[in-house]
Amino acid sequence: MTERFPDLEIYILKAEPASVEQWLRDTFNQVDSQKNTDSHNHWRVDGMDVFLNAGAEKNFASLWFKQNQTPWNNDLELGRAAFTALESEVRCSDSGWSESESEDADGGWVKINRNGEKPFSW
Fold first, then answer.
1. pTM of the prediction?
2. DSSP-assigned beta bridge partners for residue 41
3. What's the average model confidence in pLDDT over 35-39?
4. What is the structure's pLDDT at 97?
5. Collapsed DSSP state (helix, strand, coil) of residue 50
6. Which helix (H) or strand (E) holds 109?
7. Domain boundaries, the chain
8. What span, in angstroms and rounded, lies between the C-alpha atoms of 96 and 122?
9. How many CA atoms lie within 13 A of 48 on its CB side?
């Protein structure tokens, strides 16, 4: 059985806010733009808060579903869907987060791109 995460977050290489918004509109019933700037976007998506932070990590934008009322159980499922829709490299965790896990632990990340899925250390 797959654990359902309470929130979801992935990182998308050179994410274009307009492309992300279009994907959200193609995937969900209601997408309302809230507050948008050059580096941050906020949408209400079927009652969820969804944030895109363009400058989260070098060339990667963070896409965060604050509440997980999505069709995806975890970050990896979301990452796969985002890569398919946006055709841009996605990085995401391969498991849930726990306070007992070491902050310095290697791994725990998956890179999804045209070469497939591979674990890596970020």
1. 0.89
2. 36, 52
3. 83
4. 61
5. strand
6. strand 109-113
7. 8-120
8. 16
9. 19
Place of tokens 């796969």: 80
Are the C-beta atoms of residues 92 and 10 closer than 8 Å to each other? Answer: yes
Query: How far is residue 105's CA from residue 36's CA, in Å, rounded to a whole number?
Result: 35
Alpha carbons within 13 angstroms on the beta-carbon side of residue 9 total 15
Residue 88 has pLDDT above 50, yes or no: yes
Beta-carbon contacts of residue 77 (< 8 Å; ≥ 6 apart): 2
For the chain, give the DSSP string.
-PPPPSSEEEEEET--HHHHHHHHHHHSS-EEEEEE-SSEEEEEETTEEEEEEEEEETTEEEEEESS--SS-SSHHHHHHHHHHHH-S-EEEESS---TTS-TT----EEEEETTEEEEE--
Beta bridge partners of 111: 91, 118
Determine the residue type at 114. Answer: R
